[in-house]
Amino acid sequence: MKTCAVVGINWGDEGKGRMVDLLTEQYDIVIRYQGGGNAGHTVINEKGKFALHLLPSGIFREGVVNILGNGVAVDPDNLWKEIQYVAAEGVAVTPDNLKISDRASLLMPWHRDLDALEEARLADKQYGSTKQGIAPFYSDKYQKKTLMAGELFHPEKLRAHLQDILEWKNLILTKVYGAQPYTMEMLEDWIRDCCEPIKPYVCDTHAYLQQAQQQDKSILFEAQLGALRDLDYGIYPYTTSSNTLAAYAPIGSGMPSVSLSETVGVVKAYSTCVGEGPFVCEMFGEEADRLREAGAEYGAKTGRPRRVGPIDLVATRYGVELQNATCLAITKLDVLGYMQQIPVCTRYLAGGKEIDHFPFPSELGGAEPVIEWMQGWNCDISGVRRWEDLPEEARAYIEFIEGQTGCRVKYLSVGPERDSIIIR
Ligand code: GDP
Asked: Ligand 1, atom 19: nearest CA belongs to which residue?
């Protein structure tokens, strides 16, 4: 069975959405396996320009079945709005092309409140949460204090379960944060207005995927965020609250016994990072503004300006190793066209020594980038579609990344549109 994971190598926003949109042509099923509506995958194709948050990026391809796996934080409210948003643009979303795992847990209305309350309590020590309720959701999932989507089919038991969770959550809301409690009526409204509309999509996706396995269907796993945001291996506590790594894809998807035949690691031609936390190669001032403008680096979900810097090969080597990437997709190469000389971070200076491995999170704050300069190509490459037509300097830049990471670059994107791609 052909399986492929499309994953981020760095801090997220690498352009995974456009790579999934491109590659779905070769796959029968696309599965999101972790994360929630805090994702912002931008996809531009013949149907228009879309910012997807929860829906898998395969939703635009006819005949592709899209699955939200058990590892995803399913926010019924936002998912229903997103289904309506793409449907209004002429994209059909039906129980045939969208399936939600009955084992996926539901993000409850109070999770967003709790995110905002906790960020307010932290004041100047905030984590930079997107306030979509993701951290409170995953904490509750592991405390076994939320609902699974399949419970919607068992209304008599659902009510008692909701009552238990409500009692416990109100203690936290009122006693810890001094916030207003929820009532059972509020939860009943939420079930009726937000959960009932998505119920037709909920099914036993594990059984569906077992059958797909027997039929030798091809499967694409779509990650949210990047390796450095992985809860266990990333820049904790400035990570997300789930496992973004390819190794988790089979588990979060509902087919734990499957292995990956290919892993496409997506890397941007330079670095960006949203929110707080250590970002060793960060650029400031005019240099940063120029790169941010050239790459239109503003968050798809929040509109926040992204922090920018040169490509960080220390972090990228670590990401490639964590993801066990079999090839790389370098995105947004066109953006560097204005630079005479291109900065590249190859090592860090940490504790008075030059190092080439990614250090423990607590050591990142004191680390500085060691920058090397490469010759820029200084022209517009957005119309190029063949490797041999790229300027020599652009090819040298890509080959340098390959040499430093030990991973082959198979895809190069030179514009946001589906066909602005070079395949080697
Ligand atoms: P994702 O979350 O990893 O899918 O990444 P995002 O969608 O947040 O960020 C990628 C952004 O870059 C989107 O606005 C894309 O339209 C845009 N983009 C992707 N590839 C290219 C490219 O090759 N060139 C340019 N100029 N923009 C691109």
From this structure: 416
